[in-house]
Amino acid sequence: MGAGGDGRPVAGYKKNTTLEKFKNLGSVKDDLTVLRHMWFGSKKGDDHAARLESFYGPQATAYDAFRSRFLWGRKPMLAACAARLAERSNLIWVDLGGGTGENVDMMQQYMDLSKFKAIYVVDLCHSLCEVAKRKAKAKGWKNVHCIEADACQFAPPEGTATLVTFSYSLTMIPPFHSVVDQAVSYLSQDGLLGVADFFVSGKYDLPMRQMGWARRFFWRSVFDIDNIDIGPERRAYLEQKLERVWEHNSQGSIPYVPWLRAPYYVWIGRHPSVGHALHDEKVERPPLFPPTFLYTQSWEDPEPDMEVMEINPNDTVLTLTSGGCNALNLLVQGAGHVVSVDCNPAQSALLELKKVAIQNLEFEDVWQMFGEGVHPRIDELFEKKLAPFLTQTSHDFWSKRLWYFQHGLYYQGGMGKLCWVLQCLAVFLGLGKTVKRIANAPTLEEQRRLWDSNMLIHFVKHGPKLLVYVFVKFVSLVLFNKAVLWFGGGVPGKQYALIKADGIPIENYIARTMDGVAENSHVRKHNYFYYNCLTGKFLRDNCPTYLREQAFAQLKSGAVERLTVATNFFMEELKARTYTKVILMDHVDWLDVPVAQDLAECLAKQVAPGGIVIWRSASLSPPYAEQIKKAGFDVRCISRADQGYMDKVNMYSSFYVARRKGKKD
């Protein structure tokens, strides 16, 4: 760029560079003007309008550029509102404290302005209103009306508004009770009120808003110098008048001020509805958990589950989340309500993203995200269609990890990294092409041939015993030690001990798993678990149920609404309601004997008579099976690994089902 085909500078290139320098200097000059009036400007006047004019008047023309790098909550607020109004038209929007009309310009990124019958930009500062009027004229906004008025007294001529917004203005309106009351008075019954602003929490506030006393004191004092009150009272009053639909709390950088990040929030509300409840708490990651998920997909075959679960529309099912695929499968199978719980908030964030994607994206976008594991437009989709519906915990998680969908989702997390390392190791050992051939073998017979004829497998099965022993022990030490098994495969110490108690060396356990799959399950056609591990993606005809187009349509048409994603400890969620079906996965393997006893007693109380509980174990005869039996269940073992190949995952030693004694209601 900037040179001709012969290497000489293109004519005008130097001139353009000089112009860019002048533009940058002009930008810095404008920023300094704003900063001078923010830090040293006077705020004189007999009333609020005069004080606003004395403060904003001198910086009005430089206002937008500086604020775009300071007011980080504006875009998320507009995106959240637009996402909820996207299917509607003939809307009325009132932007209170709208200043220069920049919000209107930003809204064009999220929805067509022609959907608004009228847009009212209301502000008490004369200089800012003049900038807004010039902007509206220059951009040809025929439906935009710039009104110089007191927001506490303004009402749209139509009498109602579909959307009312306060963009960093509510903290600057002293009589905030009056302006909120006025806005609510003309907000339509199906309308939204959006707020983006700076804040400090109350001393006793929601966990997702909470901050320490030093931050509360510092930021409130700093903003108070400019007569901006960022205390919690305004949001508390909003929640007294309206119900909260969505909110997000975060912090953003300040131009020319290193290290400090100002706290801000986005809040969307509406008129109260019957039975409304919104809980989005700050959830702490348990000790020793990595800062991401362990599993990118559910690591249990749902087909054997469905053969014994008797899923029906009257079911309330509790399951561990894992990758979330099996929770979605339960809904496709017709479960009335599915509660998916995990104590790792990252696993909840993964399932919540899948749920929100199903609700708000088309099938091809969902396929690219979770079928291919990559999406070229993930940033745009996240900002406009996903982020506006995520809880704060999930929003915070994914906003920092969208690159997962650029580098490959299924190479992330503990299990994903382990798969990536094993693929790299295979390439290093000269087995890269063999792995690809096994993954894409056209028949099971060809897959078996490739597996058995592979030099590494052949060596392990038929090589000199001493060399094989040394090699296997070395691989076990490097790849199957406790740290790798925990962070890469989610196998904790207690589960590792169960395997050893059966007298099976861990390397034999892994070999049994892999050999059983290779010999009995056609990976390319029927085993999406291992196809994903070998290739980092799924295939349209070999994928979890929710990624099949017909199942996706079923979920999108309403079934996914019956999913509750909970970040909690399993026992606490079990106590929350009565269930007809419970899927323990291998959870009880992780527990001490006294805790397993408590769980068995809790199952007896919370599972309805006739209800079904299933679990898998790394043990051939898990000791807690007897505890569950004594608690009032008929327990039977469905399959064991020492009896042969179990299922497509084939990584557990036993599969159990238990039915709660007693008659159904």
From TrEMBL:
It comes from Edaphochlamys debaryana. CDD domains: AdoMet_MTases. Keywords: Membrane, Transmembrane, Transmembrane helix. The lineage of its organism: Eukaryota, Viridiplantae, Chlorophyta, core chlorophytes, Chlorophyceae. InterPro entries: DUF3419, SAM-dependent_MTases_sf. This is Betaine lipid synthase. Pfam families: DUF3419, Methyltransf_23. The chain crosses the membrane at residues 409-431, 466-488.
